[in-house]
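Need residues for this backbone.
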């Protein structure tokens, strides 16, 4: 039966604590869109292995942290199918079919691979194949939209290309997905002004302690502008981050009029703490109830497997692998 609402698929890798960039770039969209889309939000734990496989304990902890983060920010498991990627074997099975459909030169054009190569890293085959697994994640569920930050645009394009290639060769089985990137939150800057990213060490973790928030905010560089000296707020890293927690015109105006950096940092610290306090409380409630969290994941995996296995059967049938 065709789902009455359009489908959405997305996830955040369990490779470290989620940060403010992940939240405003992607996760906030998951929460807002969950009412209007049949949402499949997963923990891409297979993707967490690509750069280097972490210890078993670390992977388990990080995976559980992302589940708690999702629940804490307001993803409603009654509305959303929430599951771990590793609980749905079809992701890896479909990726194999796609691996055989794409070429090495095509994958060599992926930014993530090119960046790793440029840094002189010995790139794992997993990092190289990452976009193909992501294509499988999206196409298995016939997602029409994929809410992400701008850095993921190319990966959704890859998913589209792969769907077109498969459909042309074997008959139309896959829906073409579209990335959903919001203009205002496409690239959230980190404390050093570059894109906020776990790999740049410039993050404000969403569930940081008050002390960690203070330390991160205090590390944001400021210029030598004197108090009350006018400046375009958009040129200040401090305001570029602050505006996500307090988008009011009043705040912007006071930055423009030369709000002192010390005062601005104190306000930002307080605004972040106020913003995350209800989320921290919800997180603690779920963390204290691991049985409930496991039930949510099992029920999500069952629903996801049901859809994914049917799709996989159709793929095997189309390719000639069922007989
Ligand atoms: P990271 O770059 O920190 O490793 P991920 O690759 O796990 O983050 O990204 C998870 C989601 O968060 C993706 O949709 C990604 O586009 C989004 N995202 C990550 N960093 C930012 C940022 N600085 N601004 C906007 N979106 C971001």
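Answer:
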């Amino acid at each position: 039966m065709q789902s009455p609402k359009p489908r959405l698929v997305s996830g955040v890798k369990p490779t470290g604590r989620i940060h403010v960039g992940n939240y405003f770039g992607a996760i906030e969209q998951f929460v807002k869109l969950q009412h209007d889309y049949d949402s499949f939000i997963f923990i891409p734990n297979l993707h967490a292995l690509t750069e280097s496989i972490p210890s078993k304990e670390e992977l388990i902890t990080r995976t559980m942290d992302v589940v708690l983060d999702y629940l804490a920010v307001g993803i409603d498991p009654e509305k959303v199918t929430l599951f771990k990627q590793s609980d749905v074997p079809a992701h890896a099975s479909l990726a194999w079919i796609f691996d055989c459909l794409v070429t090495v030169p095509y994958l060599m054009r992926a930014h993530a691979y090119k960046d790793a190569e440029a840094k002189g890293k010995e790139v794992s085959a997993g990092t190289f194949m990452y976009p193909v697994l992501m294509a499988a994640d999206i196409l298995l569920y016939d997602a029409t939209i994929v809410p992400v930050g701008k850095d993921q645009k190319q990966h959704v394009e890859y998913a589209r290309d792969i769907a077109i290639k498969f459909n042309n060769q074997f008959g139309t089985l896959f829906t073409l997905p579209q990335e959903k990137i919001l203009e205002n939150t496409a690239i959230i800057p980190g404390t050093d002004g570059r894109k906020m990213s776990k790999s740049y060490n410039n993050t404000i973790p969403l569930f940081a302690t008050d002390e960690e928030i203070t330390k991160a905010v205090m590390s944001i560089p400021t210029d030598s502008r004197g108090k009350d000296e006018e400046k375009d707020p958009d040129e200040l890293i401090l305001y570029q981050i602050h505006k996500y927690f307090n988008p009011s015109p009043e705040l912007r105006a006071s930055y423009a009029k030369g709000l002192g950096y010390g005062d601005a940092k104190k306000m930002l610290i307080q605004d972040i703490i106020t913003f995350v306090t209800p989320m921290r409380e919800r997180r603690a409630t779920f963390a204290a109830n691991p049985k409930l969290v496991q039930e949510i994941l099992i029920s999500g995996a069952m629903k996801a497997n049901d859809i994914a296995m049917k799709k996989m059967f159709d793929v095997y049938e189309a390719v000639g692998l069922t007989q």
